[in-house]
Amino acid sequence: MGRRDAPKDGDRRVGRRALLIGGTAAAVGSAVLARDELARAWWRVPGVDKPRRPGEVDYAGARWVAASEANWRRADRPADYGIDRVVVHVTQGSFASAVQVFQDPEHGAAAHYIVRKDGRVTQMIRELDVAFHAGNRDYNERSVGIEHEGFVERPQDFTDEMYEASARLTARICARYGIAVDREHIVGHAEVPGTDHTDPGGDWDWDRYLRLVRRARTARA
User: What is the rounded distance in angstroms from the CA atom of residue 112 to the CA atom of residue 166?
Assistant: First the structure.
């Protein structure tokens, strides 16, 4: 879990890919790939009023539980901030305790998603918005944060159900924003510059996780 960022929008910038539309996708032979690319292109168009219906989620398998508005900043991603990272966290506690602190306005931090040991996914912040999860403003603006229920020193907390559910979620995020499935773009909280956190820890199986993400991405395509 990250530190509070200074919630200022003075340095908002438009990503270079914000003006992309579906031209590239139209040239792709596969109708499935073209449809996915067109969907992502629409999501990048600046000025598009992206839907914000109460309780709506970005990932179809997720349940919505809102984080405190003090723990995130409203944005229009990826039109204003390009998304090119997924940051993997571990809660260092139970699912219930993570929800409690993310709903606490004094906590100053929250992630977009929490994945439970049983594989259930909860979304607490829209991907459109900047969650204060990484302890680094630039990374917060460009990433989606995923918490995982458990403790870094308890590898048994990282269940098969958790790995598989998280991999499907990450695969969908990577497909939506064109993020490469590799260790440069899918990182641990401990790898964020300036952080003092150690999660997801040495027992998180990165080789297995990336293999599952790639499999889920391929299966969807």
Answer: 13
- Residue-wise pLDDT tens digits, 85-126: 999 999 999 999 999 999 999 999 999 999 999 999 999 999
| Rounded distance between C-alpha atoms, residue 212 and residue 221, angstroms | 14
Q: Give the up-direction half-sphere exposure of residue 47: CA atoms within 13 A in the CB hemisphere.
A: 2
As annotated, the active-site residues are: 147
CATH topology of domain 55-220: Lysozyme-like (3.40.80)
pLDDT in tens, 161-204: 999 999 999 999 999 999 999 999 999 999 999 999 999 999 99
Residues 86 and 84: their CA atoms lie apart, in Å, by 7
pTM of the entire predicted model: 0.80
Residue 67: closest CA among 149, 151, 119, 127: 127
Pairing of strands 143-148, 113-115: parallel
Beta-carbon contacts of 98 under 8 Å, excluding residues fewer than 6 positions away, are 1, 91, 114, 147, 149
